[in-house]
Hints:
- By secondary structure, the protein is mainly β.
- The protein has a single domain, classed as Jelly Rolls (Sandwich).
- The chain has helices at 4-7, 10-19, 24-33, 183-186, and strands spanning 53-59, 64-70, 85-92, 94-102, 110-119, 123-126, 132-136, 143-150, 155-159, 166-170, 175-176, 179-180.
- The longest helix has 10 residues, at 10-19.
Amino acid sequence: xxxxxxxxxxxxxxxxxxxxxxxxxxxxxxxxxxxxxxxxxxxxxxxxxxxxxxxxxxxxxxxxxxxxxxxxxxxxxxxxxxxxxxxxxxxxxxxxxxxxxxxxxxxxxxxxxxxxxxxxxxxxxxxxxxxxxxxxxxxxxxxxxxxxxxxxxxxxxxxxxxxxxxxxxxxxxxxxxxxxxxxxxxx
Length: 187
C-alpha cells in the first residue's frame, strides 16, 4: 500500500507546499528547489492549434498554475502580469525571455532592459515593478514551462513594442484541468 505522499507527483506536492507559503520569497524558493519533470504534467500537456498552448492545471484564490507548451518559433507578446508575481519553471527545451520598461515623457514605446535564456530545470520570476516581458521558443525543439501566478490573473495587458500602446486580453486556455477546450471558443 502506498502512502499519500508517494501517490502525488511533484506538481501536486508543490501545490500543497505553496498553499502554506507566507511570502513571495518563500514561494520562489519552493518552485526553484522543486524538481519537476514534464512527465508530471502529461495529463495537461496540450499544444494549441495557433499560438502556444496555455493549460490550466490548478487555481485557487491565492494562485494558479499553468503549463505553457511552445512549438519552435512561437512567442508571446510583450505583456505585464496585472499586479501578480509570475514564477516560471522551464520543464523542457529552452525559452528566450526579453524584458522591457516603458518609456516615459515625450517618447513612447518600450525599451529593452534585459535578455536571458531559461533552460530545462531553471526558474525565473518577474513582477510588474521589474518590467514587462516577452517569452519565446527560438529553438528547433518543443519547450514546456510551468507558470505560477500569485494571485491568479484573469486578464493581462499586451503592449506594442514601438508605440507602447496596450490592449487588455482575457485569459483563455487550451485546456482546463486536463480537459481540452473547444478551439472555436479560443478565437
